[in-house]
Design a protein that fits this description.
Oligomer: single chain
Number of strands: 12
Shape: globular
Distance between the termini: 21 Å
CATH architecture of the largest domain: 3-Layer(aba) Sandwich
Bound molecules: nicotinamide-adenine-dinucleotide
Helix content: 40-55%
Number of helices: 12
Largest sheet: 10 strands, mixed
Strand order of the largest sheet: 2-1-3-12-11-4-5-10-8-9
CATH superfamily of the largest domain: Isopropylmalate Dehydrogenase
Amino acid sequence: MASHDVTLLTGDGIGPEIAEATRRCIDATGVTINWHVKEAGLKVFEETGDPLPPDVVDTIRKTKVAIKAPITTPVGKGFRSVNVRLRKELDLYACLRPCKSYAGVNSKFDDIDLVVVRENTEDLYAGIEFKEGEGATHRLIDTIAELTGDSIPQDSGISIKPISIQRSERIVRFAFDYARENGRTKVTAVHKANIMKYSDGLFLEVARMVAKDYPDIEFEDRIVDNMCMQLVQKPQLYDVLVLPNLYGDIVSDLCAGLVGGLGVAPGGNIGRDMAVFEATHGSAPKYAGTNKANPTALILSGVLMLRHIGEREAADKLERAISSVIREKRDVTFDLKEDRNDPTAVGTSEMADAIIRTMEAI
Ligand code: NAD
């Protein structure tokens, strides 16, 4: 049987505990993984001065696939987000966030199966910013006045929103290819092209053009504010959503909320030939080292990883086992119990044990 090289970034906070639970569940599928275990984050920063040492990135480049546990980003000091750096350095341009209802999870709906595809590299998140009061900002304001006749107040800060044909095309193609490969029937492009004609308008124009190459998949578009309302009222109408970076960030959290929140929201950051899978949630520092955190989102990210490397049968088996344990509501962490203070809640590693036992029985 073929083996796969996969980097495991153990993260910090609750990271190491849920990474271990995830590794055990994936190994129990029977797929042979050569794990390349690496550390990144706060502790590594304190030891080496760099939270993402070059050999970590090199290892991911080599294995081409990674599972990453959450990493803390200190607010206002310390280091830039390791997550953002990884996306940039490895050009992981697509953020994939499936949002699916699992019976047993407390949520507003029980029949949702949506996939959010977010562009990860441009838009207002490109990091091109001009600080209020600086010379460069005043020069930009003057240039804009000269070019457009529009006057921006001199005491403004400015963030730039680039949207390109090439990057819009690759994300929309990613969404259509994903739809095709995963038996999905519709892609909805989300935008605000009525207001931002030259950025979101370009995204929409490119999406319409790409859609012509996929006549087997239905295509439609929605303005982002209307999309948010529709998702809250009738999310069942949607299948695969493709969005520029900012709307993608917001709408993917909205969709995670629809299916019961961060505890069950997996994700993947995917590039041309590399992919890093991670939970949507962060490092939940208050639960670090307590064996209390819910490992489901990272294990579900492992399911995505298995599908990505072509191990679909193992992925389906693992997902069925997770789904069964959640449905039974017995061997689950506190946050998946009806009452968060339920004393019968189990720990992170015990929930992984239950998933493994269930997998062995099916
Ligand atoms: P968070 O997701 O860590 O926590 C939000 C809330 O959900 C908290 O109440 C937390 O205790 C709870 N929670 C999160 N995951 C849980 C789990 N698996 N089981 C049980 N409860 C869980 O978000 P935050 O508090 O805003 O961020 C904490 C740190 O994580 C910050 O430094 C942030 O920058 C970082 N972060 C990292 C990533 C990543 O590595 N991709 C993503 C988001 C946030």
